[in-house]
Design brief:
- Residues 24-43 are annotated as: Disordered.
- By secondary structure, this protein is an all-alpha fold.
- It is 79% helix and 0% strand.
- It has two helices and no strands.
- The chain has helices at 5-29, 31-39.
- The longest helix is centred in the middle third of the chain and has 25 residues, at 5-29.
- It is rod-shaped, with a radius of gyration of 18 Å.
Length: 43
């Protein structure tokens, strides 16, 4: 399939945006919580 360059760029950008959102949500669910626990001083 051949898309006009603007359409292809828009599709690519949307795909990348969704990938980045998924990565961020995974980090927040897993690594992010651990990191915030480590960086806070003990109370």
């Amino acid at each position: 399939m051949i898309f006009p360059s603007g359409v292809a760029a828009d599709l690519y950008k949307k795909a990348m945006d969704s990938e980045i959102q998924q990565l961020r949500s995974q980090e927040a669910n897993h690594g992010g919580a651990d990191v915030t626990g480590v960086t806070k001083p003990p109370s």
